[in-house]
Amino acid sequence: SRSINLAVIPGDGIGQEVVAEGLKVLSAVLPQDVKLETKDYDFGARRYHDTGETLTDADLDALKQHDAILLGAIGDPSVPSGVLERGFLLKLRFAFDHHVNLRPSKLLPGVATPLAGEPQIDFVVVREGTEGPYTGNGGTIRKGTAHEVATEVSVNTAFGVERVVRDAFARAQARPRKKLTLVHKNNVLTFAGHLWTNIFNKVAAEFPEVTTDYIHVDAATIYLVTDPGRFDVIVTDNLFGDIITDLAAAVSGGIGVAASGNINPSGEFPSMFEPVHGSAPDIAGQGKADPSATVLSVALLLRHLGYEAEAARIEDAVSADLAERTGKAARSTAEIGDALAVRVTG
Amino acid sequence: SRSINLAVIPGDGIGQEVVAEGLKVLSAVLPQDVKLETKDYDFGARRYHDTGETLTDADLDALKQHDAILLGAIGDPSVPSGVLERGFLLKLRFAFDHHVNLRPSKLLPGVATPLAGEPQIDFVVVREGTEGPYTGNGGTIRKGTAHEVATEVSVNTAFGVERVVRDAFARAQARPRKKLTLVHKNNVLTFAGHLWTNIFNKVAAEFPEVTTDYIHVDAATIYLVTDPGRFDVIVTDNLFGDIITDLAAAVSGGIGVAASGNINPSGEFPSMFEPVHGSAPDIAGQGKADPSATVLSVALLLRHLGYEAEAARIEDAVSADLAERTGKAARSTAEIGDALAVRVTG
Ligand SMILES: CC(C)[C@H](C(=O)O)[C@@H](O)C(=O)O
Ligand SMILES: CC(C)[C@H](C(=O)O)[C@@H](O)C(=O)O
């Protein structure tokens, strides 16, 4: 019989609330014969304040035993900027070699967008997750003085770039439009830019059916608001991916519906699924958060574990729920979760 | 009697056409007693192909003699990516210490925006121009092999950050809303992020009337499409500034109207003014380019040289011209320039 052994990290702020709904929908959608086991982990601001710990080696060993990880959100204004981001979230992405950071953007019918007209948006960003300016390389000298110098080193390897580029080509190949766009800034960041561009062109030769395209990151932000329909699959570096996926989320219905997967394709380590949004402390505990992004992240999780039909059922349920929202009274986090749980079983 | 000794760099593609209109409007707006001298420089793709040169020491010496520089656009597909960008444009910005890269965004009445509703957009981005990931520091080892490693080093100094932050505070102080937003990614790029944040907070204490705000660059792209009215003055690093000003241009009427100044505030070196758009080789030589961005860059140039009334006359002329475009037949580059030249004298 089948089973899913899931690590659950509700985290801070609205993380708790949205993860509860994600699990509700997950339980509802799974067939009877699939045994779902979950274990909660208390990472985040509270644990940091209590113990000074963000993510220990023992934590990593424990998490490693799971099939996948569901994360709500990590971050609180009471913790200095960077401590939980670098000490927990990025540490986990790096430790578990989550090199494919998958962020789909689809503007669903009936969903409001800040863009005029009726843009067609349906693309996936494959963001590199373990290199680039995110490595933490760099440093500071003469800190706090008038002569301080702070550096940040973007590290890019042929190994790291090729595997994510290859993953993106395979995803493009599997989609109807078969189009892949490389987003970088190779006219200024020429060292990293040439590495990315050369590998992209080399791998392209192995995927003759995939149409390819290159766009500078600055121009990409223009297209994301003037012509988002031009994108099918985008592959890009860690920092550019961070920036353009927030913009992509904004134009395709907002971060209330933006899901993401931090994927280790080999399966050597568990992959982690999380909404793109943060912990939103201003609305935490009020039942105001939209759990849809977390629920859609559960769909990505199921697809990753091979439950394609169940993933599609969740996506259809969210799509139907969103389509019926206009003009209705706002519902609480739990009410939306309840409605989605009903839909996936219906 | 007064005089302006201007270096003119038409450059590549549409650069030639739009600069001609910029000069037309400049001549028209200047009072009789101001003597305008211009000297053309042939930098760009043609010269690179003919001589292999992008910008020599002798070129820099010659440019140094001018009061200011007007640039059209540099770049052509026949030149490998990075050669003209690093070898000319960035070389010039760095050599002339253009540390304040000024990019205003204002959605003028009657101008189309990709955003729904009627957003109020009127802000200025002060982009640092001589540091960050643009320094060209970094390198490549094992180039072209499976073990290649390419690095890009973002260099940030207290000296460099403080002077641009100070400039931005002074600009915010001089505007009615007196609001300054720092855009960075200090939760991930903690070395550079802390330097920027600490200096920002330190200088803030000297400007008690200025309201301050901090936003991560990824979130800033969301606000630029969902709530651009929240911004008054933004100060940010070289790369983040590059990215968000293209997006800012897109939402506030497009790169057809986005102007910029590469400013050396001390006046030790001439400042350079250029449209944010590129050389657009696909429409070059056809009289299709909108010269408004270049004309508005001429306004920034005049303001920088102390001709405030003339700068305002140009801005009013462009504003009036744009307001009357809807429903009219498209005009050529020269026709728009002619119309603006008439308006500024009217
Ligand atoms: C919180 C932060 C470290 C993170 C990132 O920059 O990757 C977030 O913005 C994201 O996109 O998941
Ligand atoms: C052409 C390129 C080097 C330049 C930059 O990145 O600064 C351009 O995008 C700009 O914004 O002026």
TrEMBL record, chains A, B:
Cellular compartments annotated:
Cytoplasm
Cofactor binding comment, as recorded: Binds 1 Mg(2+) or Mn(2+) ion per subunit.
Name the domain of life.
Bacteria
Q: In which pathway does it act?
A: Amino-acid biosynthesis; L-leucine biosynthesis; L-leucine from 3-methyl-2-oxobutanoate: step 3/4
Reaction catalysis annotation: (2R,3S)-3-isopropylmalate + NAD(+) = 4-methyl-2-oxopentanoate + CO2 + NADH
Q: What is its EC number?
A: 1.1.1.85
Record site feature (Important for catalysis), residues: Y134, K185
Q: Which GO terms describe its biological process?
A: L-leucine biosynthetic process
The subunit field of the Swiss-Prot or TrEMBL record says: Homodimer.
Name of the protein described by the UniProt record: 3-isopropylmalate dehydrogenase
